[in-house]
Specification:
Blueprint lengths: L17 H7 L6 E5 L4 E5 L23 H10 L6
Antiparallel strand pairs: 1-2
């Protein structure tokens, strides 16, 4: 763990260490700030590709996949959709 002291300007801004930005931030440079009471946790915001979630969950459906309203209803109810 590396500790650095930084100043906060009159508008509440701090600068992040260049080494940390190079290692952890992508081109968008977004961060997530978590308020832990007297501490702030700053984490790099990582975007996810939706394709990473494809085929990640197995479900058994009785609904015809051409009728997305029934599929949605079945998934939300946790069982078979009414016919």
């Amino acid at each position: 763990m590396k500790v650095e002291e930084r100043s906060v300007d009159s508008q509440g801004r701090i600068s992040l260490p260049a080494e940390w930005k190079r290692q952890h931030l992508d081109q968008e440079g977004g961060v997530v700030i978590v308020n832990l009471g007297e501490e702030l946790l700053i984490r790099a915001k990582k975007s996810k590709r939706l394709s990473e979630f494809f085929d990640s969950v197995d479900v058994e459906l009785r609904s015809d996949l051409s009728d997305w309203h029934r599929v949605k209803d079945e998934l939300l109810r946790g069982g078979s959709a009414p016919r």
